[in-house]
């Protein structure tokens, strides 16, 4: 048990950001990893030129890295936005324009998990209207994901850092997951369980794992406080990942932490090199 018993991937949108996007897969491979994940890389557009999509695919292929998770378009992330799908008007339209683009790119690289960030509450907008829009867009995203053999992920964020984001508890995200599955009948909507965000919300992490491991499609970790590498804070991450495994979770664990003041490649000293390549 412990860290060597997990399947880790590196989030290339928060680690190796000192490098241009197309150099990050090779950097992750040089550090010993064979799997990576990404937020939507083109924050300015939901529909980048095909040449840019092809270039990213080539970078992943040339590095020998498998993309195991990809966000749909989520607005300015990093930045003030926390998704687009529940935001009425232009942002929702941009999310819809991105659905098939993201699904097709995922299919082209064998990625089987697509994360749809819910989006912030908007001043002057009725929350019920936003939630109805969200469900409509999530249903479309779930169907597109299913078309390419992927799951749709719904993520809890944390209230202190994302005060306008409505899904700031595990039960809130699970409720959305259940609604999407009920609407589509596909059963491919899953919970993205981020131990850092849940800990920032003060949730009982062991209880969340027991309650929702069966509905979890992806896991992400960072230590707390600080959102740094494991061992830089107080979270018993090794124990919690063992609890997830004991509860039946056998999926990926995304490393979504800040490397601090050092180069990203030096932030993995908590994990033996022999445990970095996914079997």
Question: How large is the count of helical segments?
Answer: 8
The poorly predicted ranges are: none
Helicity, as a percent range: 25-40%
Q: By helix and strand content, what is the structural category?
A: alpha/beta
Cα Rg: 17 Å
How far apart are the first and last residues' alpha carbons, in Å?
A: 15 Å
Query: Could you give the order of strands across the largest sheet?
Result: 1-2-3-4-5-6-7-8
Strand content: 5-15%
E-strand count = 8
Mean pLDDT across the residues is 97
Q: Major β-sheet, in short?
A: 8 strands, parallel, barrel
The general outline is globular
SSE pattern: EHEHEHEHEHEHHEHE
Description:
By secondary structure, the chain is an alpha/beta fold. It contains eight helices and eight strands, in the order βαβαβαβαβαβααβαβ. It has an eight-stranded parallel barrel, surrounded by four helices. Strand 1 (7-11), helix 1 (24-30) and strand 2 (35-38) form a beta-alpha-beta unit. Helix 4 (127-147) packs across helix 5 (170-184). The longest helix is centred in the middle third of the chain and has 21 residues, at 127-147. It is globular and about 50 Å long. The protein starts with 6 loop residues before the first strand and ends in a 24-residue tail after the last strand. 49% of the residues are buried. The model has no long low-confidence stretch (mean pLDDT 97).
């Amino acid at each position: 048990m412990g860290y060597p018993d997990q399947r880790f991937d590196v989030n290339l949108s928060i680690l190796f950001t000192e490098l241009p996007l197309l150099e990050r897969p090779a950097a992750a491979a040089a550090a010993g990893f064979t799997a990576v994940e990404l937020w939507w890389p083109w924050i300015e557009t939901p529909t980048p030129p095909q040449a840019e999509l092809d270039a990213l695919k080539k970078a992943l292929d040339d590095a020998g890295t498998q993309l195991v998770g990809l966000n749909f378009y989520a607005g300015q992330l990093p930045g003030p936005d926390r998704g687009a799908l529940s935001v009425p008007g232009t942002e929702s339209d941009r999310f819809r324009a991105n659905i098939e683009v993201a699904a097709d790119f995922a299919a082209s690289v064998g990625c089987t998990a697509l994360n749809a960030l819910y989006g912030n509450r908007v001043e002057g907008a009725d929350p019920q209207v936003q939630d109805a829009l969200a469900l409509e867009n999530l249903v479309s995203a779930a169907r597109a994901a299913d078309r390419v053999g992927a799951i749709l992920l719904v993520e809890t964020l944390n209230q202190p850092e994302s005060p306008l984001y409505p899904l700031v508890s595990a039960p809130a995200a699970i409720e959305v997951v259940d609604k999407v599955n009920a609407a589509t009948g596909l059963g491919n909507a899953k919970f993205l369980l981020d131990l850092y965000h849940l800990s920032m919300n003060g949730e009982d992490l062991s209880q969340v794992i027991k309650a929702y491991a069966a509905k979890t499609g992806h896991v992400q970790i960072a230590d707390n406080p600080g959102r740094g590498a494991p061992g830089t804070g107080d979270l018993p991450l090794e124990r919690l990942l063992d609890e997830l495994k004991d509860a039946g979770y056998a999926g990926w664990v995304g490393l979504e932490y800040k490397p601090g003041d050092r180069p990203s490649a030096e932030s993995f000293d908590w994990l033996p090199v022999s445990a970095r390549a996914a079997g």
